[in-house]
């Protein structure tokens, strides 16, 4: 979240799109209820289904799955055409005036630099601004230059008319226009709108770009950086935010630093590409500090063994030849290229797309380690359970080891919420029987692997043998020790840069924040964004003071938020260029003549006078927010609508004559998987998968109460489809895709309506994801038996939310 949960109550308009917060985030959703009760906020829900969130909305609009870019692109077009934008904001705080290179082009759905053989854009050099001789971006403040971002944006989305939105999304034009008007009411200073989204946007082959389109709408409305505004990603598992913060993605280090790729063998090249020089005069480009974060991180991992002479151990970091995400891992397993797999708190056969492929892949391993408190479908993947897990057990050679773990409630630790708040918790119960904590198991593995390397050597023993392991009990580090390590400490006395005789932090003491991190090896910090969470003053995550001095929910003494305990990111943008809050009633910060002060920690240089004109988006070297994504995105700088890989039309209505542009031209597809896709001729119905409040994924079916309230697998279909296939409420239906089928009870509902897409009737089918063949509920089929193995072009997240099936009477 750019903002935070409590801040949602500051919103005047709330758009829930691509998520179902009342169902999946019921505790956080209370802040929507507060906004409605206390500010008369309006709640809009756009979802293919009339959900629990929709049931309390002020306005609901249906949409076909996978078409949110068409919808939001339509909103952008409408806002520009009707002049409903926050002019002062976009003019000063975005790239509207920036000039784009001459060779940048967009032709019938494809951007410049495409390689059709590779299904990718290997050459993205044209997706950039024009850079002058002085090293700065060229701009045109009049916005007249046909190559400025504003003009290109206007031109790009001019095709996204209300008629096209209706044709592609199936959203009736008058409903779409009503949503535009409600959103547009927040374009004025003094009114705030927020967007809450989750998997309905991420689980698509074009998901990252859906989120960007939402962010672009928010920028036009001046809704980023202000109280009650923002782009609010509602995260999943209680600590999934912490997982990404700590770099547990295959391409990341901690704090969103990135692993080097194969071409970056030189440490200097690696740093130069990341420590970005400012692209505007007087601009602060915060990533210029990358080296300080990186060196401190390396010192934290390798201690004294990381030296200036060995580039802090740079050669010990893996250099990636490709992303090693989940789908890649399963692909490699399936090709027989993986020997063993450690599955920690992860039920992969239930949660990955195309169960048949995952099942085959697991069967090709030599060994599989499961670290989980429960017996899961993955730990039992080799067992035939009737039709539910139709496997030939005798043919599987994989040796499976089950290591029972504690669960989060049985240990101390911190969880990072969607709000970026790190909150400490204390264990509620002792672990049962022989369960061990994940920390203890991982440490046990490490100590044994290190001993083996020490004894036998090996190709590259250094990264393991030299790893710093400074814990009081090496076999079982405590969560407290780890939390202190992530924060970081001084490895030598740290003195005041203005007065070398003044010692700010003594050697060995905890650091106060990431501003103190150094690139000379004199500080260590395991995760720079967590620096400040456990200072010399103690554990900041354990704080429980909920006082709210300004009354707008900025409880700065409740736990601790990264970065720097800041609660609203980009909060400098909540003020005009002179530093006066756009909305004095919901003031986050303001310029008092000598400093930025207020209810939040400024996201800016604290004493930088607004007269100097530095932009508020200091993590971008240009200092402003981007409509034109000059780097980073894999399918183009402006989001374009592409169809889901399995779609009911077979063409993209925006590019009906260009098959290359039907679906995301840069999506993640493995060649062999293409033949598993369904087509509309055989599989005419659009399916989407989702969760229910009563269950948490695949594990609460082991808990008796949850099993009682949702005991049996069901799917939801609309009344018209039920009539077409001849089933009544409560009957059994078979739902098949090209990859498999499931049989479940049909819930026939008014909450899913047939949509008309380019003249064609399209039915949606809703498939909740919780059931399987272990636990206390009635056995069911894994939902991912049905889903396609295709991923987003940037995040590689699978397209769980839009694919084709056939519904028939069972
Ligand atoms: N009780 C409970 N709570 C949970 C979980 C749980 O299992 N149980 N899981 C947690 C986890 S890990 C996560 S990631 C979050 C997920 O939180 P959500 O993303 O809110 O959960 P989903 O149920 O997957 O909801 C997706 C919603 O998106 C809609 N949708 C599908 N396709 C589209 C589309 O193309 N466009 C639009 N606009 N909407 C679409 C669906 O109809 C559905 O209502 O929930 C968390 N909370
Ligand atoms: N079709 C479809 N597929 C989906 C989704 C979808 O919407 N549709 N959603 C996707 C999403 S967003 C998610 S997050 C995944 C979820 O997929 P998974 O994360 O695989 O699902 P969970 O059932 O939450 O599995 C977590 C496991 O962790 C165990 N566990 C709990 N506490 C601890 C602990 O302290 N230590 C250890 N070692 N284990 C513990 C639990 O017993 C459980 O078995 O599914 C994904 N798959
Ligand atoms: Mo999730």
Automatic annotation (TrEMBL):
EC number: 1.17.1.9
Molybdopterin oxidoreductase domain mapped to chain residues: 2-378
Alphabetical list of Pfam families matching this protein: Molybdopterin (PF00384), Molydop_binding (PF01568)
Any one annotated GO CC term: periplasmic space
Localization (cell): Periplasm
Tree of life domain: Bacteria
Keyword set, alphabetical order: 4Fe-4S, Iron, Iron-sulfur, Metal-binding, Oxidoreductase, Periplasm, Selenocysteine, Signal
Recorded GO MF terms: 4 iron, 4 sulfur cluster binding; electron transfer activity; formate dehydrogenase (cytochrome-c-553) activity; formate dehydrogenase (NAD+) activity; molybdenum ion binding; molybdopterin cofactor binding
Residue ranges constituting the Molybdopterin dinucleotide-binding domain according to the UniProt record: 688-803
Keyword Iron: yes
UniProt keyword annotation of Transferase present: no
Principal location class: periplasm
Cofactor(s), names only, from the UniProt record: [4Fe-4S] cluster
CDD domains linked: MopB_CT_Formate-Dh-Na-like
Any single GO BP term: anaerobic respiration
Entries under PANTHER family matching the protein: FORMATE DEHYDROGENASE-O MAJOR SUBUNIT (PTHR43598:SF1), TUNGSTEN-CONTAINING FORMYLMETHANOFURAN DEHYDROGENASE 2 SUBUNIT B (PTHR43598)
Family per record: Belongs to the prokaryotic molybdopterin-containing oxidoreductase family.
Protein name: Formate dehydrogenase-O major subunit
Origin species: Paraburkholderia caffeinitolerans
């Amino acid at each position: 979240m750019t903002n935070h949960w409590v801040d949602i109550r500051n919103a005047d308009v709330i758009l829930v799109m691509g998520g179902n917060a009342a169902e999946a985030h019921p505790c956080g959703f209370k802040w929507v209820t507060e906004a409605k009760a206390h500010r008369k906020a309006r709640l809009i829900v756009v979802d293919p289904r009339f959900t629990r969130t929709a049931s309390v909305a002020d306005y609901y609009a249906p949409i076909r799955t996978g078409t949110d870019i068409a919808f939001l692109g339509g909103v952008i077009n409408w806002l520009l055409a009707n002049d409903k934008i926050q002019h002062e904001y976009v003019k000063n705080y975005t790239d509207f005036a920036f000039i784009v290179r001459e060779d940048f082009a967009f032709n019938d759905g494809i951007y410049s630099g495409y390689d059709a053989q590779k299904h990718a854009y290997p050459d993205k050099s044209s997706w950039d601004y024009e850079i002058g001789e002085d090293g700065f971006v060229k701009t045109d403040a009049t916005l007249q230059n046909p190559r400025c971002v504003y003009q290109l944006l206007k031109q790009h989305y001019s095709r996204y008319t209300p008629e096209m939105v209706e044709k592609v999304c199936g959203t009736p034009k008058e409903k779409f226009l009503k949503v535009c008007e409600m959103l547009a009411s927040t374009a004025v200073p003094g009114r705030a709108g927020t967007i809450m989204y989750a998997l309905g946007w991420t689980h698509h082959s074009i998901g990252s770009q859906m989120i960007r389109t939402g962010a672009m709408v928010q920028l036009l409305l001046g809704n980023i950086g202000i109280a009650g505004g923002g782009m609010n990603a509602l995260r999943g598992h209680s600590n999934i935010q912490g997982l990404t913060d700590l770099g547990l993605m295959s391409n990341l280090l901690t704090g969103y630093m990135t692993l080097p790729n194969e071409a970056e063998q030189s440490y200097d090249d690696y740093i130069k590409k990341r420590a970005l020089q400012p692209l505007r005069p007087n601009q602060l480009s915060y990533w210029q500090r990358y080296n300080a974060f990186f060196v401190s991180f390396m010192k934290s991992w390798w201690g004294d063994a990381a030296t200036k002479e060995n580039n802090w151990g740079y050669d010990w970091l893996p250099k990636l030849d490709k992303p090693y995400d989940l789908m890649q891992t399963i692909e490699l397993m399936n090709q027989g290229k993986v020997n063993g797999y450690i599955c920690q708190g992860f039920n992969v056969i239930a949660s990955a797309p195309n169960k048949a492929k995952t099942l085959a892949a697991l069967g090709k391993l030599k060994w599989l380690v499961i670290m989980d408190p429960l017996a899961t479908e993955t730990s039992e993947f080799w067992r035939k359970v009737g039709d539910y897990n139709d496997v030939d057990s005798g043919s599987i050679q994989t040796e499976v080891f089950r290591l029972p773990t504690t669960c989060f409630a049985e240990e101390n630790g911190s969880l990072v919420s969607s709000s970026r708040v790190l909150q400490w918790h204390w264990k509620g119960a002792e672990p049962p029987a022989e369960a061990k904590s994940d920390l203890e198991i991982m440490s046990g593995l490490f100590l044994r692997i290190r001993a083996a390397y020490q004894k036998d050597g090996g190709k590259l023993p250094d990264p393991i043998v030299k790893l710093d392991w400074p814990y009081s009990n090496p076999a079982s580090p405590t969560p407290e020790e780890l939390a202190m390590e992530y924060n970081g400490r001084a490895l030598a006395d740290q003195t005041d840069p203005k007065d070398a005789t003044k010692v700010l932090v003594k050697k060995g003491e905890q650091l106060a924040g990431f501003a103190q991190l150094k690139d000379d090896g004199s500080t260590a910090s395991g995760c720079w964004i967590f620096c400040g969470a456990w200072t010399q003053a103690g554990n900041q995550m354990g704080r429980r003071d909920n006082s709210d001095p300004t009354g707008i929910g900025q409880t700065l003494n409740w736990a601790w938020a990264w970065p720097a305990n800041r609660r609203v990111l980009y909060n400098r943008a909540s003020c005009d260029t002179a530093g006066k809050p756009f909305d004095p009633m919901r003031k986050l910060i303001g310029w008092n003549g000598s400093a930025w002060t207020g209810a939040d920690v400024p996201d800016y240089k604290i004493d930088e006078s607004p007269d100097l004109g530095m932009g508020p988006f200091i993590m971008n070297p240009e200092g402003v927010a981007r409509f034109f994504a000059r780097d980073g995105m894999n399918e183009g700088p402006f989001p374009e609508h592409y169809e889901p890989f399995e779609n009911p039309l077979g063409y993209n209505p925006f590019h009906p004559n260009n098959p290359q542009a039907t679906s995301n031209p840069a999506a993640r597809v493995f060649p062999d998987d293409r033949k598993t896709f369904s087509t509309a001729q055989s599989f005419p119905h659009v399916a989407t998968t989702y969760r229910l409040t009563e269950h948490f994924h695949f594990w609460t079916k082991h808990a008796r109460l949850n099993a009682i309230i949702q005991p049996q697998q069901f799917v939801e279909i609309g009344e018209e489809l039920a009539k077409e296939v001849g089933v009544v409420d409560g009957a059994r239906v078979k739902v098949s895709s090209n990859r498999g089928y499931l049989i479940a009870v049909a819930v026939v509902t008014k909450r899913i309506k047939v949509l008309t897409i380019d003249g064609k009737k399209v039915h949606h089918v809703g498939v909740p994801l919780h059931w399987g063949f272990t636990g206390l509920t009635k056995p069911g089929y894994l939902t991912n038996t049905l889903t396609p193995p295709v991923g987003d072009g940037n995040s590689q997240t699978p397209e769980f939310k839009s694919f084709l099936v056939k519904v028939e009477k069972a």
